[in-house]
């Protein structure tokens, strides 16, 4: 185990993700200064259901985009890996910000090719319905679930489920299940919208033969 500074937020960050943050609270301004001066990392455990989650994502400070006279800052960070909190401190020793004794969580990056293909097909259908075709075209061929997770309409709780999954295959199964639940609802919504548009219009219908 090791001590890690913690910055709980109402969001889930996935490994590899780049995150821009506006820092204004004194405790987190202190944290940024410590990252610069001591070259330390910090963790973002999601704050869900009025509590700090057990799992979180370790973050590296990449740079300060802007500093304000008030002491506030715009910073750029990058997510590294997932950790589990074993002991949480509301304040790290001698610091204003929180901390915790954590252990790193190993990740199996190997996914299932067939599942990835099915997910890609479902995402294409999803983005076509939503008019987001460009997002699909920008999808890398070797994408991981972490690369697309924020673009699937998942709740914070569902994103946390992905973070908690131990393998890429498990994450693929969760995403595929979500897409298969959402797509029929979206398709029916589009059909209802089309019916509403046609209501009151002259209809060119072919009578049945009988």
Automatic annotation (TrEMBL):
Residues covered by the Lon N-terminal domain: 3-181
Gene3D superfamilies in UniProt: LON domain-like
Family annotation (Pfam families): LON_substr_bdg (PF02190)
Species of provenance: Hymenobacter gelipurpurascens
Lineage of source species: Bacteria, Pseudomonadati, Bacteroidota, Cytophagia, Cytophagales
Protein name: Lon N-terminal domain-containing protein
UniProt xrefs under SUPFAM superfamilies: PUA domain-like (SSF88697)
């Amino acid at each position: 185990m090791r001590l890690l500074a913690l910055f709980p937020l109402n969001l889930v960050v996935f490994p590899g993700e780049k995150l821009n943050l506006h820092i204004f609270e004194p405790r987190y301004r202190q944290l940024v200064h410590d990252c610069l001066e001591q070259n330390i990392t910090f963790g973002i455990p999601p704050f869900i259901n009025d509590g700090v989650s057990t799992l979180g994502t370790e973050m590296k400070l990449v740079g300060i985009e802007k500093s304000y006279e008030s002491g506030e800052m715009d910073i750029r960070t990058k997510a590294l890996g997932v950790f589990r909190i074993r002991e949480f401190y509301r304040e790290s020793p001698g610091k204003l910000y929180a901390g915790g004794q954590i252990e790193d969580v190993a990740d199996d990056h190997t996914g299932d090719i067939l599942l990835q293909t099915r997910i890609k097909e479902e995402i294409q259908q999803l983005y076509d319905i939503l008019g987001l075709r460009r997002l699909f075209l920008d999808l890398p061929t070797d994408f991981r679930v972490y690369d697309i997770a924020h673009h699937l309409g998942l709740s914070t709780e569902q994103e946390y489920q992905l973070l908690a999954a131990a393998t890429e295959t498990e994450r693929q199964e969760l995403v595929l299940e979500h897409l298969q639940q959402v797509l029929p609802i979206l398709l029916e919504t589009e059909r209802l919208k089309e019916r509403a548009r046609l209501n009151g219009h002259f209809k060119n219908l072919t009578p049945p033969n009988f």
